[in-house]
Amino acid sequence: MRELMNEIVQSAKAAVKSVLCHKLRSLLTILGIVIGIASVIIVISVTHALGEVINAQLKDFASDMVTLQAKTPEDKKQLGINSQLSYDDYLYLQSRSQQVQDMSPSVMLMESTPRLLYRRNTATSSLIGATSLYQSVVNVFPQYGRFINPSDDQQRRRVVFIGRTVAKNLAMADDPVGEYLQINSDWFKVIGVGEARGSMFGIDQDNYILIPVSTMRSMFGADITNNISVLFRPKAGVHIETVTQELTSLLRARLNLKAEEANSFEFITAEKLKSQFDSILSVVFAVTGGLVGVSLIVGGIGVMNIMLVSVTERTKEIGILKSLGATPRCIMIQFLCESVLLSLVGGLVGLAIGAMFAELFSAFLPVPLDKLVPVWAIWLSIVFTSSIGIFFGLAPAVKASRLDPIDALRYE
Hints:
With 412 residues, the chain is an alpha+beta fold.
């Protein structure tokens, strides 16, 4: 064992000298490895950063909020049938559910984008009809003024609760409560401005206008609520799965769905959104990882080719070493060490370049550098490049160890 360790140490020293003596050749040899590992680190950092950003945004999102919306089964799609969830369905669920704490309809004007007018300033925004419980379900809190209350909904008042972006786009005062703005041809009194919520997945969460759902029905007709979403929050201590099972039973009974028929609705939760994004990121990582893997294989083949050329160039040297008593194992270990060293140096350089790009990404994304490049990615790079050196360096090393010393000494 001690003799083997001594051979490895001496072979490693010889490998270092050989690499340093042929700097340009060594540089060209490791170039493919450098590009491959740098690409791996960049891909890992980007996907990891996106995952961290998504998780952070979903934490800010109402994590226990559930959205119930219509979903058309495939067999009905082929028949041209579109499922809908109506305002009456919402009232039915609200009156019968025992596990829901707060529930509100969410009606969004889809046919057209409402035009907003304040003095001479115009803007566009998403128009949403909701009830007073929308505030506690979605966690929308006023910075100025108040939110919609039950009286506003009962009286069909022309009042509006706006987001910070709307107030900014219309050049309103910091506190515009009491001002009037025009939505299409109707005038509304501003009763509140929401706290800034930022953006989620590139969508501005502050560009909205909320009005009572009854007011929306009176403006656009009752048909506007023929296809709505229902937002709700379970009671404290009640699991989301329990609530969705209860609502599923209630809604299937109301819609007269047979046992073999699929649900014409679906529940969207923060966990479901996260799993969908994780699936997308996994596919992206797999595809880009495959492309990067090809470049690493090409880099490994480059190492093998250069090492085979090196064996040919150093044939006489190998013959001299064997004539002085070097064993085939010693020759093989020396060439194997040189191959591993080249791959490892290429991996470390690629790791440094990839980390530099990750640091640039950290300037644009709210993710710390240590989370952009996880420790496992560093160890994976080191182990992978060492494996490439062993795998692609084995053939040249075996070829060198099997050279006949007399033929090697005669080689010109």
